[in-house]
Amino acid sequence: MTMKTITMRRLAAATLLASSLALGACGGSMPNPGMASAKAPLVTQTILVHDLGYAGSDGLSGEQRKSLSEWFDGIGVRYGDRVSVDDQGSGSGVRRAAIASVLAEYGLLLSEQVPVTPGAGNAGARVVVMRAAATVPGCPDWTRGSNAEFEASTMSNYGCASESNLAAMVVDANDLVSGKAHTGTDALTTVKAIETYRGKAAEGTDKVKSTVGTAGSN
């Protein structure tokens, strides 16, 4: 298993503006004269790979399927991970379908985007998991308080709560770097939740059953 970490930062406009005003700062941190947060989530991307070797043209063997499932369990594959297959050998389509069937047991689908990893050409069927995590470095930040000052600046901790909540709640942190493309609206998917709500019987409508017991005597 190989792990590679890539760091990407989503810069807010206020961060660049605060840098240009660094010379005029007084106090612990740079002033932020705007209403946008000077903090921004830091997205760390980790790439995990698992080589299945040169599997047969009829898919995966039982031992390979077991190895793949154990690896998924070991890394805790979860929703938000982007799982892809790097396999250019003969019968790659069949092997890809077999890997997809194992992944489906975890409620995930294969991604079409395959990251470039070292030695992939000599590894046979390689499963690649790209996982991203978001944090907000420097938060909380109380270096600039709410004291009277002449820069009309926000506090140094301004925006920390919102940005930290965003980093904690986002399912796929890669979306903070580049959002998903709009693929249109599926009307059937849109109304599915409404139909389920309308078709479900209301709770508590059944009559309360009464039972008559006989008290014992000594």
Protein described:
The protein is α+β, with helices and mostly antiparallel strands and 218 residues long. It has a domain at 35-143 and 152-176: 60s Ribosomal Protein L30, Chain: A, CATH 3.30.1330. 27% of the residues lie in helices and 17% in strands. It has 5 helices and 4 strands, in the order E-H-E-H-E-H-E-H-H. The chain has helices spanning 13-20, 62-75, 92-104, 160-169, 187-199, and strands at residues 2-9, 42-53, 82-86, 125-135. The protein has a 4-stranded antiparallel sheet with strand order 1-2-4-3. Residues 5-27 have low confidence and may be disordered.
Give the CATH topology of the domain at 35-143 and 152-176.
60s Ribosomal Protein L30, Chain: A
Total DSSP helices: 5
Query: Helical residue percent?
Result: 25-40%
Tell me, what's the shape?
A: flat
Order of helices and strands: EHEHEHEHH
Q: How would you sum up the major sheet?
A: 4 strands, antiparallel
**CATH class membership of the domain at 35-143 and 152-176:** Alpha Beta
In the sheet with the most strands, the strands line up as 1-2-4-3
Distance between the termini: 74 Å
Q: Rg, please?
A: 27 Å
Poorly predicted regions are 5-27
List its salient traits.
60s Ribosomal Protein L30, Chain: A, 4 strands, 4-stranded antiparallel β-sheet, 218 residues, alpha+beta
Short description:
This protein has helices at residues 13-20, 62-75, 92-104, 160-169, 187-199; strands spanning 2-9, 42-53, 82-86, 125-135. It is of the alpha+beta class and 218 residues long.
Write the layout of secondary structure elements.
Elements: E1 2-9, H1 13-20, E2 42-53, H2 62-75, E3 82-86, H3 92-104, E4 125-135, H4 160-169, H5 187-199
Antiparallel strand pairs: 1-2, 2-4, 3-4
